[in-house]
Amino acid sequence: QVQLVEYGGGLVQAGGSLRLSCEASIRTFLRLSMGWFRQAPGQDREFVASISPNGGRAEFADGVKGRSGISRDYERTVYFEMNGLKPEDTAVYYCAGTSRDESSPLPRLRDEYDYWGKGTRVTVSS
After folding, report:
1. Which residues are CB-contacts of 117 (< 8 A; sequence separation ≥ 6)?
2. CA–CA separation, 35 vs 109, rounded Å?
3. Which residues, other chains included, contact 21 with Cβ-Cβ below 8 Å and sequence gap of 6+?
4. Which run of H or of E encompasses 10?
5. pLDDT digits (tens, 9 = 90+) for 6-19
């Protein structure tokens, strides 16, 4: 059974930065495309970023593009960083994974992901 656990949430001031990490308990970590989603209060869960199994490709949602990054190691951890935080970035951030080849299109839809963490809350104060 695959488990994903997110770390790094908390309270951040507007203009600050965050670094989230997600640890996966799966031997085939390098066969997974990994993604980050977020869900603000009263809103649907939305795509934030994704990265290919070998880390060679990444995609970002328009709302975070240019001020965020996603990376992964070769063991079991994927990271998400974002700077220039705004109050509207306040949300629960979720890590997700799904089996993909390195050359496959990066998944951006919730239904494309098979594994999910329980989320970590990020609150950006103005």
Report:
1. 3, 4, 5, 6, 22, 94, 95, 96
2. 10
3. 6, 7, 8, 77, 78, 79, 80
4. strand 10-13
5. 999 999 999 999 99
Reading phi first (left if > 0) and then psi (alpha if -120 to 50, else beta), residue 112 is in alpha
Task: Return the residue matching tokens 């649907």.
Answer: 44
What mean pLDDT comes out for the span 100-119?
96
Contact 35, 68 (CB under 8 A): no
Q: What is the pLDDT of residues 17-74, one digit of tens each?
A: 999 999 999 888 999 999 999 999 999 999 999 999 999 999 999 999 999 999 999 9
Residue 103, token pair as written in the block: 């050359």
What phi-psi label fits residue 10: left (phi over 0), alpha (psi between -120 and 50 degrees) or beta? left
